[in-house]
Design goal:
Length: 242
């Protein structure tokens, strides 16, 4: 099965093509550019590097969130468009699970995170089982850093924090966990679409491509403000989901 995987959930952009579990090509950049202008050229390039065309891709895998609202919408919309127009499979994978998947050969808790501002983070807790498979210990969520620390203290295990945003909180983690706190290296802190593709290969394809939406895990401030003045609308979205 040929897989094209893309992650636009945060600042870094990563795109990869795999044939089953073999990586044919991968491109990851960590520059502050608009994914709306860089994603399609990156896809075009790795398809050329893989000697494949888009209609030879069997499954499109996309980072479904959490992460940047704009980045997620770009990636999800692009993957949906490819899958729908080419009549191919579509799979969404947690952006956090993909980041956790960068770490292998350990039984420590894997804690990927993204800075969600105002001393909050998007995070989840993962761990490798006895067979090396990535398992979800605590579901992805939007949470205050203090609450994350309290929950991890209850688990009382070695922890590997993963992600470029970890640096914002590293001193607090060291103070809270001492020698139990470990930190991924620069390479593992970046998303790798090849890992996203490997995880996506293990999942079932979505049944309804049109109904597939990002997992934001929180509303935008604009939506919160709108709901305050439109309480009669219930939970109707402020903007149409992609």
């Amino acid at each position: 099965m040929n897989i094209l995987a893309m992650d636009t959930s945060n600042r870094a952009l990563s795109v990869a093509v795999l044939s089953d579990d073999r990586i044919l090509a991968e491109k990851t950049t960590d520059v502050n550019k608009n994914h709306s202008t860089t994603l399609l050229p990156a896809i075009d390039q790795i398809l050329k590097d893989s000697h494949l065309t888009s209609d030879q891709i069997d499954r499109f895998v996309v980072a479904q969130g959490p992460g940047s609202y704009t980045g997620l919408r770009i990636g999800v919309t692009t993957a949906k468009t490819f899958a729908f127009t080419l009549h191919k499979e579509l799979v969404g994978v947690s952006s956090l699970a993909s980041l956790a998947g960068n770490i292998r050969h350990t039984n420590a808790l894997l804690v990927p995170l993204f800075d969600a501002r105002r001393d909050n983070v998007f995070t989840g807790v993962y761990q490798r089982d006895d067979h090396g498979q990535l398992t979800n210990v605590v579901s992805d969520k939007h949470v205050p850093v203090a609450a994350l620390i309290a929950q991890l203290k209850m688990l009382n295990e070695d922890i590997i924090f993963i992600g470029t945003d970890v640096a914002h909180f590293a001193e607090r983690f060291r103070a809270a966990f001492g020698q139990q706190a470990h930190f991924a290296d620069d390479e593992a802190n970046l998303p790798h679409a090849s890992e996203l593709g490997l995880l996506g290969a293990q999942k079932e394809a979505v049944k309804d491509i049109h109904a597939f939406i990002p997992h934001y895990l929180r509303r935008t401030q604009a939506e919160n403000d709108w709901l305050k003045t439109h309480s009669d609308k219930g939970h109707q979205p402020y903007v149409e989901e992609v």
